[in-house]
Design brief:
By secondary structure, this protein is mainly α. 57% of the residues lie in helices and 5% in strands. The protein contains 16 helices and three strands. A hairpin with a 4-residue loop joins strand 2 and strand 3. Helix 6 runs parallel beside helix 8. The longest helix is centred in the middle third of the chain and has 21 residues. The protein is elongated. The N and C termini lie far apart (61 Å).
Length: 341
């Protein structure tokens, strides 16, 4: 329904019997109504009134609908930039949830959605947060998928992979949602600087250790910055101890000797696997084949395990995951194993 139709429906009809219906369904309806208020403070005041009415009923399971409504208040506070107020309600919500049994999925969902959104904002705006992999791997963050805040999940992915172009596309596509977050608007320049630093770290990570002397122009192309701005970006990264290296202004290059370890996503693991393939090709030879060989499991998530095993047990190449009886120290592959070149 358009405009304030739901507000009018509530005021002139639902309010006459609001506490006589299922209280959780009533809470669901009031949250939808609250989103029709153009002024977020008006929406918060309306929901606070709903919480008071719910408490007055003294029903046995009234904490469920109250928690559901409070999580919407927390969302409004976050959208207003009141992160402390939001965090307080989330902490209270966790305490309430911990003391409840057989909680309705919608109540669980709204709590975790609010928590996921709060964590995402905190990560994006955090002063020294340059690692998003662990956060993205957490199931709570995936509660954003399929919601009106899904855009912030994709924003985290863009930052994690250092994709400046994707970040700019997301900003254009979700401009209205972004403008509704004062904290993001106020820190627009810091966010751009952060993703440029992450882009730099991704450039370094994608290169082998023998190829870590990088032209400043190559970094400028990927980050869409001038060479002068790239130099500032490098100095910022060096001072924050995100990388270690030497800038050569004469040759217009930077030699990076170390980059801060990060939790890898699937695409980054694939990159690591390819580098491992190259390294194996240089140093190992498959038995009786004359070919260098390396293994990659069928599940992409297992690539990390394969890489670690390859490094820990260097005498033997890895074989197909289907062969359960593979021994990395045996002198020949088992008959059931399939060699992957």
């Amino acid at each position: 329904m358009a405009g304030d139709a739901l507000i009018q429906l509530y005021n002139h009809f639902i309010s006459d019997f609001e506490t006589k219906i299922n209280l959780l369904k009533f809470a669901h309806f009031t949250v939808v109504v609250s989103r029709q208020y153009l002024d977020k403070d008006a929406g918060i005041n309306y929901l606070e009134g709903v919480v008071s009415k719910l408490r007055d009923t003294r029903e046995a399971r009234v904490e469920e609908p109250i928690l559901y409504v409070k999580m919407q208040i927390a969302t409004f506070l976050l959208e207003k930039g009141n992160q402390k107020g939001c965090e307080k309600l989330l902490e209270e919500g966790k305490t309430t949830l911990d003391g409840m049994v057989h909680v309705d999925p919608s109540v669980h969902g709204t709590y975790y959605w609010s928590l996921a959104f709060d964590l995402s904002l905190a990560a994006l705006l955090g002063e020294n947060v340059y690692n998003f992999g662990e956060l993205l791997a957490h199931p709570i963050i995936r509660s954003l998928l399929g919601t009106q805040a899904e855009w912030i999940f994709h924003m985290l992915q863009a930052f994690n992979s250092g994709k400046v172009a994707l970040y700019q596309e997301l900003c254009k596509a979700h401009n209205t949602a972004l403008r509704a977050q004062p904290a993001l608007v106020q820190n627009e320049r810091k966010l751009l600087e952060k993703i440029n630093i992450l882009c730099l770290m991704e450039i370094i990570f994608s290169r082998s250790s023998e190829n870590r002397t990088i032209p400043l122009k190559a970094i400028a192309e990927r980050t869409r910055l001038s060479v002068e701005d790239v130099e500032y970006l490098l100095m910022k990264s060096l001072s924050a101890r995100l990388i270690e290296g030497i800038i050569d202004q004469v040759d217009g290059t930077v030699h990076v000797s170390w980059v801060q370890p990060r939790v890898l996503g699937i695409d980054q693991v694939k990159c690591f696997r390819d580098r491992l393939d190259t390294w194996v090709g240089k140093h190992w030879k498959g038995p009786n084949t004359g070919m260098s060989t390396v293994f990659c499991p069928k599940k992409e998530e297992d690539c990390c395990v394969a890489a670690v095993r390859a490094l820990r047990r260097p005498r033997w190449v890895l074989w197909d995951w289907e062969a359960e009886d593979v021994d990395a120290h045996q002198s020949a592959p088992p008959a059931t194993a399939r060699l992957i070149a």
